[in-house]
Each structure stands twice: as C-alpha cells, then as structure tokens.
Amino acid sequence: MAKKLRIASLMLHTSPLEQAGIGDAGGMNVYVVESAKRIAESGIGVDIYTRANRSGLPEVVEIADGVNVRHLEAGPYGGITKDELPSQVCALMSSFMHQEARLASNYYELVHSHYWISGQLGWLISERLSIPLVNNMHTMAKVKNLALAEGEKAEPEIRAIGEEQVVKASSALIANTASEAASLVSLYDACPDRVFVVPPGVDLKTYKVGAGKSAARAKLLIKPETLLLAFVGRIQPHKGPDVLIRAVAEMLKHTPSLKSRLKAVIIGGASGSGQGEIEKLLGLARFLGVSEVIEFLPSVAHEDLSDWYRASDLVCVPSYSESFGLVALEAQACGTPVVATAVGGLRTAVADGISGLLVDGHDPRAWSATISRLLLEPEKRLLLSMGAVEHASHFGWDSTARGILDVYDQVLSRGIKKSRALA
After folding, report:
1. What is the CATH number of the domain that holds 384?
2. What distance in Å separates the CA atoms of residue 109 and residue 117, rounded to the nearest whole number?
3. Which of 4, 7, 241, 366 has the most CB atoms lying inside 10 A of its own CB?
4. Exposure letters 396-418 (e unless 16+ CB within 10 A, then b)
5. Same-domain pairing of 150 and 81
6. Is 133 a domain residue?
7. Could you tell me if 132 and 417 are in contact, meaning their C-beta atoms sit under 8 angstroms apart?
8. Could you give the CA distance from residue 115 to residue 123 in angstroms, rounded to a whole number?
9. What φ, ψ does residue 99 adopt, rounded to 5°?
10. Residue 76: what pLDDT?
11. What is the pLDDT of residues 329-384, one digit of tens each?
C-alpha cells in the first residue's frame, strides 16, 4: 500500500485554534486552517504545529478530518511575546523532535512554514529530517519598513536577517501576489525559479450575499437609512484605523448633514504594536468631534462578521502594507464594495473601479473624497457590489489549495532534499 503523504505545517506565534482578529491572530490563521482543510480533502494529512499558549492543552487536537493541531512546549505560557519567540527555537525544536520520535519512520515528506519565525524552526526540521522546506512569509520586515505608519516602530534588523536565512534555506517560497514575489527577489535575493505565486482564498460558503443588506441590518439593529462604514482587523497603527477616523472627520466638516446618518464601526482587538491603540483612537475621535459616529466592537466570529460585511455600505482597508488583505476579499464576497490603499496585495484583492476603489496614500482628505463620492452615488455602489461578488468568486480556498499542492509536487519531484512526486 502506498505511503500516505503527510505535511508538517508550522505557525508558531499564533494558534490556529484562536479567533482571527484577537491578539496576534489574523489573516494567517485563516489562511493556514482553510488551506489545510482543503489539502486534507485531497487525501494528504496535515499536522499544524504551534506553540502551546496555556497549560493543560492536549498534545494533539483534531480540527478537521486529516488536519491536526499539535502543541509544542517552549518557555512560560504567558511570558513570551511574538518578538521574543525566536529565543525559543531550540526549545521548540526539542519539543518537535520528541513528538516526531513517536511517529512512524519518515512520517513527514515536507515541512511548510508560515512567517519567518516558523521558517527558522522549519529550516532546522528540514535539515534534521532531510525533507524540503516550503515557506510563506505572509509579511516581510523590509516591505513593512518601507511604509510605516506615523510613529510606528520599524521592524528590527534581526527579523530581516532571519527572513534572509529562511529564504536561502527554503526549497520553495509561496507568495500571495506577483508584487510579493517581486519583493522576495529584489529585497531578499530569492531565486526566481523557487518563488511561486498562489493567491489566498475566501470561504465562499460563509462569506456570501445571502439574504442581503436589509436582512443583515435587521439582525444587527441598524437602521435602513444609515450610511455604514466598516473597518475590520487587528487594531494596530499599520492597519490604519486612524485614517478612517480622520476621513470621517473630514467628511463631516464638509458635509455636516451626514452626521445624523453616518456610522463607522471598527471591529477587532489590539495586537502587537497596537497595545493601547484603542484608547488612542477613542481619544482621537473625541478630539476630532466624531465620537458619536465611531463605534468600536470586539472581534466577532465568521458567521457574525459576514453579517457586518453585508450590512455595510463600504468596507475600508487603509493599511500601510498588506501581503494580500483577506478582509477586502471577504467583504467583496458578501457584495460590499471596498475602499483600500493602493499597496501590496490590495492591488490584487480589489479590482480598482470594478469591485471597489483604491486610494493612493493615507491623506484623510483623499479618503474622505473617495468615500463621500461613493456614499452619495448609490448607483455606483450597486455596480461595484455586483463587481465585488464576481471578483471574489475567483478566489476560493479550493483554488489556493490546488496551487499549494502544485508547489509541493514540483518541490518533491525535483529531488530537492528527497525525491518523491505527488501521486
């Protein structure tokens, strides 16, 4: 009987069991879990290794048929931040090897790491087990440092060095977009032949037009006449929630009559460099005199989030850089146009003028003008809504999984580290 192919997937600094939008959990969590489920449906086993973030967790948790989460023990549960996690790579490797030793010989054929910290451990596992390493960076220090928000701390040089090492050690690198692939080559000297573009997907069963805007608003107790703007994501400077607040202030300055109808919701929790950010944003809203129209909500589950997308007139993504921007894709799948910064993967996630509009830079006046124009032109929003659904329909997770499997196939069939092609 042919040996079943199994993949060791690594995402160390955030658990696939955590809800996206809380702490360090974000789009990468969604990416890893959703792609793993589809890969497992093709008959390939996926074990997702993550650091145990609290005591009493079982060593293995099955989250779908063929997909397990395996907890690695390293350092005090609550005493290590993401930035400090590289100091625990040796402990993580030890924990991994103890678990791997109890598995069948040659259990894994390939290791797939997500983010540079996971790539560091993946590099060691690849060398130890003589199997290929595939890496997704998701975000890169050199790219982020080229577009920092005002007052945002630059990513440390040690991260950039670590990313360079992972690039060199990887048999293949998966980029979300052609833009990200170009950055890997130009900024990290990646070999072009080892860089593959596989766009992320969206859960088209959860994020869909469904019963439409009216039903979503009735469920969320939002008045039909409300002009609703939404920001969804982790609350940190790099995501640009302050840009939306400043844009709202500009809109109300020029069109005061909007105040009785306008509402902007900011959905998500603080993380990373955003600790204390919600308090700062509340203060900014008070200072600008727009507190009445700005509402902060905690991160919500996927099913509820889809209602917020459907209920909104526009979803705003004013990030300073994005490797892709899953929020933009989710919103569009629900039929809601997106206004986003013209950076990185957002240029792919949003079809400018078709499914939404892209804004150059972060000038609140430019954002205000773009948003106001769309709010005052319902016919234009309707056309963009139809384009949004069509655009998002091309980004299902099944397509992402097929792209990842193609990369696995090429890596294994090349004879890099170990020769074995996918059946």
Report:
1. 3.40.50.2000
2. 21
3. 241
4. bbeebbebbbebbebbbebebbb
5. yes
6. yes
7. yes
8. 12
9. -70, -45
10. 86
11. 999 999 999 999 999 999 999 999 999 999 999 999 999 999 999 999 999 999 99
